Amino acid sequence: MLEYVALGLLVFVAIVLFYGVIVIHDIPYEIAVHRNHPHQDAIHVAGWISLFTLHVIWPFLWIWATLYRTDRGWGFSDGHSSKEHIERLELELAEVKQRINALEGGSE
Predict the structure, then answer these.
(1) Mean pLDDT, consecutive 10-residue segments, the chain of 108 residues?
(2) Which of 25, 62, 74, 86 is 20 to 30 A away from residue 48, measured at CA?
(3) pTM of the model
(4) Membrane-spanning regions, if any (predicted)?
(5) 11 and 53 assigned to the same domain
(6) Where are the alpha helices (DSSP H) in the chain?
(7) Can you tell me the distance from the alpha carbon of 64 to that of 43, in angstroms, rounded to the nearest whole number?
(8) DSSP letter, residue 23
(9) Do residues 87 and 43 both lie within one domain?
(10) 40, 29 in Cβ contact below 8 A?
(11) Do 34 and 50 reside in the same domain of the chain?
(12) What region, left, alpha or beta, does residue 81 occupy, with left being phi > 0 and alpha being psi -120 to 50 degrees?
């Protein structure tokens, strides 16, 4: 009787481990869905591929999934709106051009 209990426990543990690995590999995809990531399908497919690579690429999928958010995009902005940012850059460029002209005019 104890052998059957041990066998049942072994089968139960094997099933839990099998489905646990599948659930773990799907975490980056769930993050991508939650953040409305534009590459959700690619992250999901890459997650399945990571099963065959023994989850070597899985941490990179996690990073890829967490980089994007709908409110800030890819997160590389400096907090300025794009129009304000462009106007500020144009002003800086105009100042630099004036300084260059002043330097070139002074050397002649």
Answers:
(1) 96 96 92 94 94 90 91 67 81 95 77
(2) 74
(3) 0.63
(4) 6-24, 45-65
(5) yes
(6) 2-25, 27-34, 40-52, 58-67, 82-107
(7) 8
(8) H
(9) no
(10) yes
(11) yes
(12) beta
Please enumerate in sequence order all residues whose Cβ is within 8 A of that of 66, keeping only pairs 6 or more positions apart, or say none: 31, 35
The Cα 90–Cα 94 span in angstroms is 6
- Tell me which residue has tokens 């980056």: 28
Tell me, what amino acid is at 6?
A
What is the pLDDT at residue 47?
93
Output the six-digit token pair for 79: 């907090």
Domain count, the chain: 2
Tell me, what DSSP letter sits at residue 53? Answer: T
Tell me if 99 sits within 8 A of 66, measured CB to CB.
no
Angle between helix 27-34 and helix 58-67 axes, rounded to 10 deg? 10
